[in-house]
Amino acid sequence: MVTKEILKRVEEIEARALQPPVPQKKKRRTMTRGEILRMEAGPELDRLVAEQIMGWSEGKHFKVGDFGVVKLGEVIDIWSPSSDIAAAWEVVKELYDRELGIEMYGEKKFPWEAEILIPGGRPVSVQAETLPLAICRAALLAVMEVGNAK
């Protein structure tokens, strides 16, 4: 004989089974130096810079949309430090705030180079087709080197 209590319990179980699963936050693995150096300019690299260099949280400070990283605030702004020099300067400022110096070089015939000076360590130097891309790759490598991700 089925009691009301058992029927109620069965209904609760069925109701939970019909609810969509709660998305679990994915744990991001640490990238290798080679993986960072192979990254192209675009939303994936911009997201890593936003999280690891700028210390922003996805959903709170930015979201990744169809056009890339969208910076949230009073004015919604597309933020692409890997391809936009104005956004890359924000990354440079953050590096200075962490007491990491940066030197940049470029000539017409050669790729751009960004070299981040790590206090008490050897510099991290990256060459890329554009200065913003060199800055982003070098920043990620420098933070990886000093273990200083935000």
Account of the 3D structure:
The protein is an alpha+beta fold and 150 residues long. It has a single domain (32-146), classed as Bacillus phage protein (2-Layer Sandwich), CATH 3.30.2120.10. The chain is 40% helix and 17% strand. It is built from five helices and six strands; from the N terminus they run αααβββαβββα. It has helices spanning 4-18, 33-38, 43-52, 85-97, 131-146, and strands spanning 62-65, 68-71, 77-78, 101-105, 112-117, 124-128. The strands form two sheets. Strands 1-2-3 form a three-stranded antiparallel β-sheet, with helices on one face. A hairpin with a 6-residue loop joins strand 4 and strand 5. The longest helix has 16 residues, at 131-146.
The CATH topology? Bacillus phage protein
CATH superfamily grouping: Bacillus phage protein-like
CA radius of gyration: 22 Å
Q: What is the CATH architecture annotation?
A: 2-Layer Sandwich
C-alpha geometry: elongated
Strand content: 15-25%
Q: List the domain count as a whole number.
A: 1
What percent of residues adopt helix (DSSP H or I)? Answer: 40-55%
Mean pLDDT: 84
Low-confidence spans: none
Question: What is the number of strand segments?
Answer: 6
Spatial arrangement of strands, main beta sheet: 1-2-3
Q: How do the strands and helices of this protein lay out in sequence?
A:
Elements: H1 4-18, H2 33-38, H3 43-52, E1 62-65, E2 68-71, E3 77-78, H4 85-97, E4 101-105, E5 112-117, E6 124-128, H5 131-146
Antiparallel strand pairs: 1-2, 2-3, 4-5, 5-6
